[in-house]
Amino acid sequence: MILYGIDRAYGNEAETTREWRKRRRSIEEVPKTVNDIDNLISQNKVKIPKQEHSSTTINGACIKRIKKVAKEKDNNIKELIGAIRAVTQAIEQGNMILAKICKPVPQLSSEELWKMLEECGCDAKRIPDIYCFLMCDVDRLRAAIQCPISARKQVIMMMFSGSN
Question: What's phi and psi for 15, nearest 5 deg?
Answer without folding.
Answer: -70, 145
